[in-house]
Write the structure tokens for this entry.
Amino acid sequence: MGRVLAVANQKGGVGKTTTAINLAASLALKGLKILLVDCDPQANATSSLGFGKEPSRKSIYNVLVATESAATALQKTSVESLELLPSDKNLAGASVELVDAENREFRLKKALEPLKPNYDFVLIDCPPALDLLTLNALAASDAVLIPIQCEYLALEGVSELLDTLMRIRRSLNPQLEVDGILLTMYDDRTTLSKQVAADLRSFFGTQVFQSVIPRNVRLAEAPSHGKPVQQYDPASRGALSYAQLAEEVIANGQKRPGQGPERSDQAA
């Protein structure tokens, strides 16, 4: 049964989409079957994997609002064993259209349930807001991966998000865990990055991943080519960092029976 991870932080510009895309690709390149769900109306994960605007293409909007089968909207990507449930601009209206819908916070959970046995991991790229789309993602997930930019304002954001997660556990998803906090846009030349990283590790301890994502030009360039960084420049620091993160995520999944890859040869 696939382990479902939401990549979430209500603060924008912290590397959520970059992390969702490149972690998904790194896991897939290790031989795992991965589904990436683009739950952001900006559809950046969709375009970053080479899918242009196409009005006729079914998307997560059709699944959440029109309750169509998620299987009918799946797209194969250029990375073998990585599939995408794409987004489009129509998703921006979903929060309004679902206001009076029955079980509105559980639409995504219900849609993903029949797909989970087909994948080792399902990653959900969340919008930078605690709206109904993010609530759907968190209600559907086993755990949350929280990217944090290495700056002081980010420290305030993670505390707010963890408070929100506590409320979601009480109301929507009692089993929701924190898979880890990921330091992104790390610049080892600056005292600020080092200090923020030290503060986060001091406060949150083992909840912070050992992997750190550096500021990397190749990471920034890859989306314009419609590729994850692993295909654009597999030897770059960004690609190597996400490969290391994938190992940690696999290890976390193996600690929990019935979630994540069960075959040891996959993670080798």
Summary: DSSP finds eleven helices and eight strands in the chain. The chain has one domain: 3-254. The longest helix spans residues 152-171. Strands lie at 3-7, 34-38, 75-76, 82-85, 121-125, 143-149, 177-186, 208-214.
